[in-house]
Amino acid sequence: MTTTDLRSVDGRAAGFADAVRDDAALRRFLHGLPGVDQAGVERRAAALATRSIKKESKLQAIDMAISMIDLTTLEGADTPGKVRSLCAQARRPDPGYPDVPPVAAVCVYPDLAGVAVEALRGSGVAVAAVATAFPSGRSSRAVKLADTALAVEAGAGEIDMVIDRGAFLTGRYGAVYEEILAVKEACGSAHLKVILETGELAGYDDVRRASWLALLAGADVIKTSTGKISPAATLPVVQVMLQAVRDWHLATGEHRGVKAAGGIRTSKDAIRHLVAVNEIAGPAWLTPGLFRFGASALLGDLLRQRRTQLEGHYADRDHIGGS
Fold it and tell me: Is the keyword Lyase assigned to this protein (predicted)?
């Protein structure tokens, strides 16, 4: 989608205030967005997946991917000890190679955010917390805002919220918009990552609409998935979301980010996504501030591939600290 496309929809490249003045205007804006060419998006994603990176650049790409990971534990059996162990790994992913960069963030439930904050103090690694009745989003707004406040008060610098997919899929866009807006306000200075749960959306057109809806409501980052639903972060879906943040920047001058979460497990997958980021959004997005991987299992493979590059043979899983 180009800046011209935006003008044809809204009448002004940066005039989004009219789009959210009421439910009817929001619906007109979202359904007026250019449709996604499914065959074209999938064809381009397939082409991007075949791009190769020269050997001398692969180590740089691996380190970049490591620096973009949100190392995550979101299980009912999580304990303070498990979170501290994860934070130690986040600080120093491969003890055998101290030049490996730390990850971008550690992501936990709100009640464990304070543990992560203390464990990561002074490291530069951010603390993210899921909120708003993650992963289903099925609760009252009061509960969702209390969930967000708990994480923020514990010191989380990033909040990952989930949208109300039921409201979105039934066309109640205003309700989704207002909820994101309320959570954004509750975040204070913390960054807000809005999870679209793309595996539950009807198709690429809905992914585009949900992306723009979240951006209009103030999302700092739009995120594919909770990691609990499949499919999650497919390359075509990420491509559509990258187009949205690129075009938001063209229209407003503001940089917003994308987080690809769920199903990215290998270095090859990660590098394919980095290629897509570079070619669709642009090199400015090749930074942890604007692109993240929500894929803890990915770290282990990145570390093994990194050692392979340096040592000339494939490292054994048992000798790598990654999960």
Answer: yes
- Give the integer Cα–Cα distance in Å for 313 and 298: 19
Question: For residue 63, which amino acid is it?
Answer: D
- The per-residue pLDDT for range 129-172, each reduced to its tens digit, is 999 999 999 999 999 999 999 999 999 999 999 999 999 999 99
Asked whether the CA dihedral 285, 241, 74, 266 is positive or negative, the reply is: negative
Sheet arrangement for strand 257-261 = 70-72, 105-108, 126-130, 158-162, 191-195, 221-223, 257-261, 291-294
The angle formed by the CA atoms of residues 211, 215 and 218, to the nearest 5 degrees, is 145
Q: How far is CA 318 from CA 46, 216, 312, in A?
A: 33, 46, 17
Residue ranges per structural domain of the chain: 3-319
- 5 an active-site residue? no
Pairing of the two strands 126-130 and 158-162:
parallel
Distance CA(100)–CA(63), nearest Å, equals 7
Give the CATH architecture of domain 3-319: Alpha-Beta Barrel (3.20)
Which residues partner with 158 through β-bridges?
A: 128, 191
Catalytic residue among 160, 220, 269, 301: 160
Which is catalytic among the residues 144, 184, 193, 259? 259
Single out the catalytic residue among 164, 223, 247, 269. 223
**Per-residue pLDDT tens digits for 44-57:** 999 988 887 777 78
Check: CB of residue 213 under 8 Å from CB of residue 183. Answer: no
Contact 178, 213 (CB under 8 A): no
**Angstrom distance (rounded) from CA 262 to CA 50:** 21
